[in-house]
Amino acid sequence: MHMPRPLAALTLALFASVAHAQTPALRAELVASGLENPWGLAFIDGGRMLVTERPGRLRVVQPDGRVGDPVTGVPTVEAAGQGGLLDVATDRDFARNRTVYLCYSEPGPGGSSTALARARLSVDAARLEDVKVIFSQQPKVSSRLHFGCRIAEATDGTLFLTLGDRFHRMRDAQTLDNHHGKVVRIHKDGTVPPDNPFVNRTGARPEIWSIGHRNVQGAAIGPDGRLWTSEHGPQGGDEINRPEAGKNHGWPVITHGENYGGGAIGEGITQKTGMEQPLHQWTPSMAPAGMSFVSTDRYGAGFKGSLLVASLKFRYLSRLVLDGSRVVREDRLLPDIGQRLRDVAEAPDGTLWLLTDERNGQLLRLRTH
Asked: Using CA atoms, how far apart are residues 246 and 160, in angstroms rounded to an integer?
C-alpha cells in the first residue's frame, strides 16, 4: 500500500524569471502513497522524512518511499473537522538534540484548541520521548474549524506558531485577551520572550506576536530572515502576509473577501488606518496551505528566491516571483495534479517535496527531468 508506484509525469513549462531567464520544466514524481490526509512534513537524518496524518499518526518515510509504522508517544489529538495532528517541524539542531515540534488540536474542558508540543525522537525513530506541551491556545472552544497550526523557527531560535480564529470567534482576532486569530512567539521551553510586543500590557496574552488573522495555514522564514505567512480568507481574500511585532492584520474589520454565499463582512471595507494590507491576495480563494521559499539553484537560477504556496481548492502549486517583499507575478504550476496540495517543503539537499491532502494522500518529489 505504501510502496512507490509509477506516476505519469505532471509537467508544466515555467515562465521566465524576473530577469527573463528560462527555467526548467517540472514534473511531480510519486514517492509514497497510502497516507491518510497528511498535513505536515519535516526532514530528519539519512534523507528520511517525518509526515503527520491528521487522524493522529506520525510516520517516518524512507527516501525510497517506504512508510514506517506510526511513531509512538504522539499526544492525544481531537481528530474532527479540520482538527487533528497537523504540523511537524524539526529543531535546527536536530542532528545534536533530536528535538521535534508538533502542533495539533488539543481536547480539554470547553472544547479544543491548538497546542504545540516538544519531544525527542528516539534514536531508532520509533517513539517520541520526553513529550511536553509548551503552548496551549486559550480559551478552548467548541469548534472543529480554523486551527491554523504552522510552526516556524525564527533566526533567533524562538518559535512562531499560527493560530486560527476558530471560525465562530472571529471578533476575538481583534482583542488581546485570547489567542484566537493570532500569531504567537515563544521560547523552545514555552516561556515568553521578554521583547514580545504585548508583554507589559495589562490583560493581554504575552505570547501574542501579531493579531487580526483568520486562519493561517502556511508559515516560513524568508530570505530576509522574517516570518511570512499564507492565510485563508472567507469567500475570497486569501492572503500572503509578513507579520511583524504588534501589527494588526485587520480580520474581520478589513478583508478582500465576503461572507460565504455573498454579502459584506462587517462594513465591507478593505483598508483602515492602523491595519496592514496583504503583500498579495487571491480572489476567488485558492485556499493556501503550506509554503516554502526556494533557496538553491537546483531548479534553475530563475527559480531561486521564489515563494511556493500549496493550493487546496484549485489544486495547483503557486509560484510567487518576488522583488523584495513585492509580488511581481504568480505562476500556477502543476495545474493537472488533481489533488489538494497541503504542504510544500524544501529538503536540506534543495529538493522540493509536496503532500496531497487526500484519504489516499501522496508524498511527491519535484524533478526537472
From this structure: 14
Rounded-to-integer distance, Cα 42 and Cα 26, Å: 22
Q: Give the SS3 label for residue 251.
A: coil
b/e map 15-34, b = 16+ CB within 10 Å: bebeeeeebeebbbebbbbe
Residue ranges covered by each domain of the chain: 27-367
Distance CA 116, CA 134 (A): 6
How far apart are alpha carbons 355 and 363 in whole angstroms?
5
Q: Which residue in the block uniquely carries the three cell numbers 525510497? A: 64
Task: Look at the block and give the residue holding cell 514555552.
Answer: 190
CATH architecture designation of domain 27-367? 6 Propeller (2.120)
Q: Which of 124, 114, 117, 116 is nearest to 71 (CA)?
A: 124
The tens digit of pLDDT for each residue in 241-255 reads: 999 999 999 999 999
Measured between alpha carbons, how far is residue 250 from residues 58, 64, 212, 255 in Å?
35, 45, 5, 7
Of residues 146, 180, 213, 249, which has the active-site annotation? 146
Query: What confidence tens digit (pLDDT) does each residue in 9-51 have?
Result: 333 333 333 333 344 578 999 999 999 999 999 999 999 999 9
CA atoms within 13 A on the CB side of 134: 25
Give 308-324 pLDDT, tens digit per residue: 999 999 999 999 999 99
Rounded alpha-carbon distances, angstroms, from residue 141 to 147, 191, 217: 11, 24, 19
Strand-pair partners of 367: 27
Within the chain, residue ranges assigned H as helices are 94-97
Active site (annotated) includes residue 146: yes
CB 335 within 8 A of CB 316: yes
